[in-house]
Amino acid sequence: MEESIKESEMLSDESAVPDPPAHAAEKKHRISDLIKNMWPAYLIEIFVIILGISITLALEEWRDSGRENHLENIYLKNLLTDVETDLNGLANSTAATHKLLDRGNELLLFIRNPEHINLTGTQVNADVRAIIERPKFISSDATFSDLKSSGNLHLIKDIQLKNLLFAYYSITQNIRDNQDAEQQATIALSGAYFLKHFSLNDRGNEPLRNGQNELAGLENNVEFANNVLLRVSNRNELLAIYERADSLAIQLKSELVKKTKGE
């Protein structure tokens, strides 16, 4: 029995003996040969994976670029429509403002030199009605507002065009602010005064005041002169802004026409 146990232990000890150096070297050689034989296949597989990913990304980029170009063209056409509408609006506001200023300047000439300006009470009433009008320009900025709010401004890739857009719509905001200020001044100051002292109905045949000389002393009326001057000054300021906006709108239209025609 003891001899059997000893034999078993001897066999176990022999099996636990590490591989001889020659056997280990042979195993390493087989692994090395396997790597040498398989690395081209691994390399090809890696290349195929990278190529597939690159093609997929390129296709996605191409599709996104196509969608963005299409969307950019839509925005450009809508911007062109808005600017053309604005040009018409600016032309109307500018023409109406010139008429208002003609009437206001006529009153100012009368105030400064009444002997050389032959006005009747009816004409003064008509001039007053004219100068308290407020020709108003309202910009069509829906497309530009959508570009900003939707985060699609990056679609406009032309830097010069983008700068023109910001410059133009900045000045239209300036017009809006000035028109609002003019409205408040007209309602609170000039309108209240003229409504109290002059006939504002459009029949135009009411006397300016009772008495033989209905214009007597009007040229020396400081309140009248100040209110006329206020209306003329406000409109001159707006006229200058209208003209700057018109100049920018013409440049902007020219650039948009080029873009929409693919030039």
Walk me through what this model shows.
There is one protein chain. The chain contains six helices and no strands. It is an all-alpha fold. The chain has one domain. It is rod-shaped. The mean pLDDT is 81.
Key descriptive features of the protein:
mainly alpha, 6 helices, 263 residues
Q: Which radius of gyration do the C-alpha atoms yield? A: 43 Å
Number of distinct beta strands: 0
* Biggest beta sheet summary: none
Count of domains: 1
Shape: rod-shaped
How would you describe the oligomerization state of the chains in this entry? single chain
Uncertain segments are none
The proportion of residues forming helix, as a percent range, comes to over 70%
Structural class: mainly alpha
Mean pLDDT: 81
The N- and C-terminal alpha carbons lie at a distance of: 105 Å
Strand content: under 5%
Count the DSSP helices: 6
Element-by-element helix/strand order:
HHHHHH
Describe the structure concisely.
By secondary structure, the protein is mostly helical. Helix content is 77%, strand content 0%.
How do the strands and helices of this protein lay out in sequence?
Blueprint: H1 2-15, H2 21-112, H3 121-131, H4 142-149, H5 159-197, H6 222-260
Helix pairs in contact: 2-3, 2-4, 2-6, 5-6
